[in-house]
Amino acid sequence: MRCLVIEDEAETSNYICKGLREAGYVVTAAGNGPDGLDYATSEEWDIIILDRMLPGRIDGLSIVDKLRALGKQTPVIIVSALTTIDARVTGLRGGADDYLSKPFAFSELLARVEALLRRSAPGADSTQLQVADLRLDLRTLRVTRGAKVITLQPREYRLLEYLMRNENQVVTRTMLLESVWDYHFDPQTNVIDVQISRLRAKVDKDFPVMLIHTLRGVGYRMGVMPPEEPEPPVV
Amino acid sequence: MSRFSNPLRTSIVAKLVLGYGLLGIASIVAVSAVFYSGTIGVIDQNIDGKIRAQTERLLDKLGDGSRAALKAEVHRLLTDGVDNDREIFELLDEDGMAIAGNLGSWPSVADAPDLVTATVLRYGRSAPARLYLRPLVQGGVLIVGRDLSEEEAVREVIWRALLAGACVSLMLTIAGAMLFRRTIEARLGEIRRTAAQIEAGDLSQRIPVTGNDEFALLNRDINRMLDRIELLMEGIRNVSNAIAHDLRTPLSRIRGRLDDALRHEPTVPRLSSAAHDAIDDIDDLIRLFERLLQIAEAESGMRARLFERLDLGRVVADIGEMYEATAEDSGITLTVDAPASLYVDGDRNLLASAVASLLDNAIKYAGRGAVIHVRAGLYQGEASMSVHDNGPGIPDAERGKVTQRFYRVDKSRHLPGNGLGLSIVSATAKAHAGTLVLEDGGPGLVARIVLPLAVN
C-alpha cells in the first residue's frame, strides 16, 4: 500500500511514517504545502494523511480541494490540532474522508487508515458474515455460533456486524461510536466497553475460543487470536 | 486639576456651555427686538399715521381755499386747547417765509420731500419732532408735525429697561452655564475617577449612583458591565488556578511512574507498563483540554451557523439506550421516555454529549439502587430534555455554583471527575439559546436542558 504523509512538523511526521512503515506500508513524506500538492496530484496513492495547517501558502484543505477537483477519489485523513467541531465539519465538508484531532494515538490513526482502505476496496457483498464458527445472516438477522442461536438487541446486532465486517482489524471506541451509533463525541465513561462486554457475554461465553478481544488503550479486535496475544503497538 | 485643562475646542462640556450661552444671548436679543418693535415701533407708526391724517383732513376741509383760510385754520388749531403742547403747524409762503405757526426753525423743503425727523425750535425751545412737509398747489408749504420729546423720554426708558434686562439675563446665562458645566464635570469626574482606579487594578470599584437621571442610568449600566467583567475575571482566575492544580496532580503521577520505572531494574514489562500508564494519564489530560476547548467553543457562540434541524426525542432515546447497560451494571434502573418529533435547531453531537454528561453524573452520584428517569418533551412551551435521579441531589447553596468550571461539591471529591461536566452542559445549552436548570428532585436532582423549539 502506498501512503503519502503531508506534515510539516518533523517529529510528528517521523512518528506517523515510522509507524506506517512498521505496519507494512510504503510511505512518502512531504514537509510543506506545495510539495504535498505536487506529490498528491502527480502520483497515485492508496491513502493520503494530511496536516491541515502547512507552511508554503497551500494548506491541507486546499490540497484536498485540488485533488477532488481533479477527480481523484484517493482517501484522505486530515490530522489537525484544530480540534473544534467547527474545524472538523469544515474539514469533512471540504472533501476529507476522516478527521483526527492531534494529539492522537498511532493505533487510532492506523485503525482509521485500515478502515478507510477497506472501505475503498470493492467489498464482498455477501449476505452472510462469518468469523470462525460465528455466523450472521444479513437477511434474516439470525446470529448463530456453532449450533447455538444467539439473540441480540438491535444495537448489539449492529455492533457485532461492524466488528465482523472488520475481522482481525483494530476497531477503536470512537470508531464504534461513530459508525454504530453515528455520534461524534467523547463519552466520559466506558459506555462502549459496557456494550461490548454485554455482546461478549452473549457471543463468547460458554465457548472455548474468544472472538472479541480487548486491546489495551486501543480498542477491540474481532477474530481468532493466537494463544499469545500480540503486544499492541508501543508508542 | 489637569483632567479638565483641555483646550476649549476639545471639551464637549465647554462647547455645550458656549452653545447654550450663545443661544441665551440670541434669545435675549430676539425678545428685546420683539418688545421694542411692539412698543416704540407702534408708537412711531401711530405718530406718522396721525400726522398724515391730520394733514389730509386739513387740506380736505379747506378744499382749494386760499392761503388766508389755511392761515386762519392753523391759528385756530394752535389755540383750540386740544393737544396743543405737542402739535406742530407751520405755513410757509413761496419764499419759505413763515406765514403762521409755532416753529422757530424747520428743515428745508428740498431736503425732506416726505415725513422727516428733525430737531426744530418750538416756542424758542429746541425739540425733536416728526414733520410732514406738504407743498401747496397755490404755492408755499404746509408743515404738520408732532413734538417727540415725550416719545423720546419713553423710548429712553424702554431702552434702559431692555439693557438692564439683557445684562441680568446675560449674567444669569453665564452663571447657569458655569453651574451646568460644573455639574456635568462633577458627574463625569466620578466616572473618570472610577475608571482610573479600575485601570490601576482595583476591579471592585464602582461609580456612585445618585438620583435617577441620565447619568445615574449610565452609571448603573457601567456598573453592571463592571460586575460582569469582574465575574469573568474571577472566573478566569479560578480556572487558571484550577487548571494549575488539576494538572499538577496527573502530571506528577505520570512523572512519578516513569521515574519509578527507570529507577528500578528496567525490564521490558516494567517499562511497557509504565509507558501504558503514562499514555492513559496523558489521554486523560488531552480529554480535559478538549473539554475546556469545547466550553470555550460553545460559549463563543460561533456554532449557530452549523446548526441543523434535529429531533431531540431521537437524540435522548439514542443516548438513553446507550447508557442502559451501564446503568444496569451499576445497579441502577434507567427509564427512557422520549417521544419522537420534538424538533429543535442545534448541533446533534453537542446535545447528545450534554445528555450523556447528565446521565453520567446521575449514574455516578445517585449510587447503587437508584432510579433514573431520562425524558424528552415539552416544558412550558419549550423543548426539554431532563434527567431525574433519586440520589442525594445538590444542596441548595451549591446548585448555582456547580456549573462553574472545575467546581466540585465537597461530597463528590472522592469520585473521579474534574468538575467540567455541568459547565459544558450549561455552555452547550447557552450556545443553543437555552438554559440548564437544576431543580430539587425531592429527592434527588432534576437536571433539565430547556431549548427553544424549532420554528417552521
From TrEMBL, chain A:
Matches recorded under PROSITE patterns: OMPR_PHOB, RESPONSE_REGULATORY
Sequence intervals crossing the membrane: none
Listed InterPro entries: CheY-like_superfamily (IPR011006), OmpR/PhoB-type_DNA-bd (IPR001867), Sig_transdc_resp-reg_receiver (IPR001789), WalR-like (IPR039420), WH-like_DNA-bd_sf (IPR036388)
Residue span, OmpR/PhoB-type domain: 126-224
UniProt DNA-binding residue ranges: 126-224
One Pfam assignment: Trans_reg_C
Keywords, alphabetical: DNA-binding, Phosphoprotein
Stated name of the protein: Response regulator transcription factor
Originating organism: Duganella dendranthematis
